[in-house]
């Protein structure tokens, strides 16, 4: 049995849904299908999930949101009409959607937003199941509550509960093609909660692990995962094979093509993952596997994510002060903030955080507490940081990778605020100003994957004025 997940771009309109159904029908083993909500049809378009979020927010503010509701209904109307589904199907789907949007009484705002968001994938699954049946297939919509997609009670950020796997395993015994909506599950008390954004990838991975799928196919709109974001570099090198560890680091640091939390279930159950293109299904795609052969080029990708900030703290003899690190991190814990990295020196430490977690009020309180409770010599908060990551199995063992990277960044006149070779065996991280992030990625791409003359230019210090 294969699990095939189709992302928002694969369900954006009727034409895309037809491609999805052709792919499903082309392989009898594609029996468990996960779908996202309709995504963008063109660059400036809206994803249905964003339309639904807007609906919920406006409704909560004003008590009605007619235009926002119309925008959602119009997307499904267009799809149902262009797929040629009977009018009753359209009416049924509209009635069910109407019921979700109207059901706010007794729900907290968080619960309401999650329920509305989830309607995007839920309706996609119903539409795809109907369309497959209209083609003569034995296809069934699966309700995640009834199937046992049990998750934690964290609004918009749910995590799977271990008990879910035993229950979802039973999907193996069902007949026909099962169409499962991605992105959400239910708490043990039966409340609907969504995963974080992009979370249909997580649903697919959980299901693949639960049914012990032969492969988890993740269909999107690119032929493969590339060594760099294809929006930054034209025709970048394709990745044929990548390890779970490498992909995990790259997903964390900006490869939005696969959700970072989607790696774990597949990895633990040893299910290979294949990223493929709905618009070009015969392309082999990228395989994510446990091990890959050592290659000449030990770097497998360069990624970057923005939206970080750092709290730099220095105190003479910090390294001898027992409990300093714990007390520092405890202040963050008490303020409800998780930290990302903690590069440190003898008398100093930086704590890297996600900017979105730090409101101005929180920042002022944290700075004040660190000063008064830890008696530090110096403290500074730096905003608008980007983390650029080079990732590759074996890279850390090969001589000269850091030099190659730092020379390339220097040649591109990029100032490094932080280097963290840290504990990860497969990655190296550079902190740069957000405004330099794209140039840094492009410089590193040319240094590690460019044509010979580009590599030479990136390695040359001659352009530097030190
Ligand atoms: N390294 C990368 N390789 C491939 N795609 C990438 C990479 N980094 C970012 N992307 C982006 O990820 C997009 C696919 O992810 P996403 O938009 O979430 O698709 P879907 O709607 O199928 O879930 C691609 O169109 C591409 O713009
Ligand atoms: N539709 C949800 C979940 C998801 O996974 O979507 P996509 O497959 O388009 O990334 C979102 O936009 O967050």
UniProtKB/TrEMBL annotation:
UniProt GO molecular function: aspartate kinase activity; ATP binding
Domain ACT: 390-463
Pfam family for this entry, one: AA_kinase
Binding-site residues, ATP: 5-8, 220-221, 226
Keywords, comma-separated and alphabetical: Amino-acid biosynthesis, ATP-binding, Diaminopimelate biosynthesis, Kinase, Lysine biosynthesis, Nucleotide-binding, Transferase
InterPro entries for the chain: AceGlu_kinase-like_sf (IPR036393), ACT-like_dom_sf (IPR045865), ACT_Aspartokinase (IPR054352), ACT_dom (IPR002912), AKIII_YclM_N (IPR035804), Asp/Glu/Uridylate_kinase (IPR001048), Asp_kin_monofn (IPR005260), Asp_kinase (IPR001341)
NCBIfam families noted in UniProt: asp_kinases, PRK09034.1
The protein's name in its UniProt record: Aspartokinase
């Amino acid at each position: 049995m294969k699990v095939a997940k189709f992302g928002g771009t694969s369900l954006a309109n009727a034409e895309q849904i037809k491609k999805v159904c052709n792919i499903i029908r082309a392989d009898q083993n594609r029996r468990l299908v996960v779908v996202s909500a309709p995504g963008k049809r063109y660059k400036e378009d809206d994803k249905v999930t964003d339309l639904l979020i807007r609906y919920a927010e406006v409704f909560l503010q004003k008590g009605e949101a007619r235009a926002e509701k119309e925008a959602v209904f119009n997307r499904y109307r267009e799809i149902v009409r262009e797929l040629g589904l009977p009018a009753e199907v359209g009416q049924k789907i509209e009635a069910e959607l109407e019921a979700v949007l109207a059901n706010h009484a007794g729900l907290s705002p968080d619960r309401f937003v999650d329920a509305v968001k989830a309607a995007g994938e839920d309706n996609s699954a119903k539409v795809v199941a109907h369309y497959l049946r209209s083609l003569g297939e034995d296809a069934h919509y699966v309700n995640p509550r009834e199937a046992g997609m049990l998750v934690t009670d964290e609004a918009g950020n749910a995590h799977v509960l271990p008990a879910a796997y035993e229950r979802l395993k039973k999907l193996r015994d069902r007949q026909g093609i099962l169409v499962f909506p991605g992105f959400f599950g239910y708490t043990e008390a039966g409340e609907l909660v969504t995963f974080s954004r992009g979370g249909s990838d997580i649903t697919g991975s959980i299901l693949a692990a639960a049914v012990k799928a032969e492969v988890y196919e993740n269909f999107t709109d690119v032929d493969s995962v590339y060594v760099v974001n294809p929006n930054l570099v034209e025709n970048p090198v394709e990745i044929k094979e990548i390890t779970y560890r490498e992909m995990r680091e790259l997903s964390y640091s900006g490869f939005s093509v696969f959700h970072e939390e989607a790696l774990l279930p597949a990895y633990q159950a040893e299910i290979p993952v294949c990223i493929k293109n709905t618009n070009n299904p015969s392309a082999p795609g990228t395989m994510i596997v446990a091990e890959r052969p050592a290659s000449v080029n030990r770097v497998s990708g360069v990624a970057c994510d923005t939206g970080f900030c750092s709290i730099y703290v220095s105190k003479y003899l910090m390294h001898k002060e027992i409990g300093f690190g714990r007390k520092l991190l405890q202040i963050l814990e008490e303020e409800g903030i998780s930290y990302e990295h903690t590069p440190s020196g003898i008398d100093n430490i930086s704590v890297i955080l996600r900017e979105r977690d730090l409101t101005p009020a929180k920042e002022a309180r944290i700075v004040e507490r660190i000063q008064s409770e830890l008696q530090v010599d110096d403290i500074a908060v730096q905003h608008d940081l980007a983390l650029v990551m080079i990732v590759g199995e074996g890279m850390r063992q090969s001589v000269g990778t850091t030099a190659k990277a730092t020379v390339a960044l220097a040649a591109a006149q990029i100032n490094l605020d932080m280097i963290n070779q840290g504990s990860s065996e497969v990655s190296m991280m550079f902190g740069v100003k957000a405004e330099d992030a794209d140039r840094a990625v492009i410089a590193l791409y040319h240094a590690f994957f460019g044509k010979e003359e580009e590599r030479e230019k990136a390695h040359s210090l001659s352009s530097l004025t030190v």
